[in-house]
What does this fold into?
Amino acid sequence: MTEILVQTTTEGQDPSVPRVVEHSAWTALKDAVEQIRPWQSKDGSIDFTADGAPQPVAAERAVDRLVDAVRTLSPLLPHDAAYHAALVADLRRWADDGFEVPDFLDSLLAFQPAADRRDGLQHLVVFPMYTQNGNPDRNFEAVVLRMVWPDWLAELERTRYDNPLFCGITFEDFTAGYDTNSAVLFPETIAVREAPERFSWGGIFCDREAARFRRVTAAAVDILGLELPADIATMVDDQKRSQEAFVLWDMVHDRTHSHGDLPFDPFMIKQRQPFWMYGLEELRCDLTAFREAVKLAQDGIPQARDVQYAVLFDRMFRFPVTGERVRNYDGLGGQLLFAYLHKHDVVRWTDNRLSIDWERAPQVTNQLCAEIETLYREGIDRPKLVHWFKGYELVSTYLAPHPGSRWAKGPDALDLTQPPRKLVDDVLPDEFPLSMFYEALSKKLKNVIASTRGITADTAERVAA
It folds into this structure.
């Protein structure tokens, strides 16, 4: 039995600035949002003819309460004054237009958190939106968050990893759509009449990522009998250290989507691709962060060694056994990393115990990163479909495809008169099933992973291994 107390950190916060979540208006705002959310359809509108729908006057009163709360809280956050003014206008327009599909483009454009990344700075955010890995509908959500931008991270971004749109953030409080597995705040999830020409920020909640990582890693280590180096065991027990590892990992990962050969962002891409291509892209970005962490550790950056183990453990222990198996590209990337390290004798599963060759792990992990980068570089000279087959070949070298897969049988098994996007329909929902190792681990970690739903840095839970 292992007990982990997850503690929040307020380092960098100005104690003279009141916490938004301690104000009574925040409670009123949350109550108004939670009243509105069940009335909304998938697209964010309110259908007053539906069963259980409110009278229009009830919806108007709820919006009035929401507007009053925003106006009350806004003076606590003068840096968000323009956004809150636009938010109030968008809320009023939504009500005046009869609660049709919401359009919050004006307030989205007014919200510019990346323009001021002071460490500890609070933001009050309200939007109709879906939450990645949370609620798929564009319901209203409200969240109070703080920026994570310590001096050491700001210096690395300025000198080595330019990423002017990235926002490391932590939760203060949130509505129901974030009482889920969602750990991001992305502008492309917000209901707008048209997408902006470019997005100007993206936020990742490093406190949730760190708390989830710590709980699942601690359980996996106990289950697998893995002996950790002393300093890494200390990191797994330390929320602040883990958050610092994740915010650095996230910053490098995020920028990698727009760097290198053939980069793309799976959250932003508009074309259909087989999900293993998304898995390879996410893994490429994670392994780039790992490789950079190896360099940073050599340069004396204390958070860098923690990043390496955060990438290894989260990818190998949590990702493969989290979520549904339908086109689970993050899970696929974790499976691939484990299989690659296993086949290169870096990880061993013997006598029901896992062991890791800690000295060779960085070298071999970087080797996998190089193989994916070679795939991308050579893909520049290939047609799309050939590139997809080469990606399949790389993955299937280390992971066994489903025996019923058409793609595994090669091009002759597919109707190549169809355009590539149509051939994606021939991909099985679980093209690369879990190995026996992961099937067993999944059963043992299932309850632990379920317990991380809605977790934040100030959650204190007992974890059973």
Q: What stands out?
A: The beta strands are 2-5, 122-129, 139-148, 166-174, 184-185, 202-205, 347-350, 353-356, 460-463. The two ends are 6 Å apart (CA to CA).
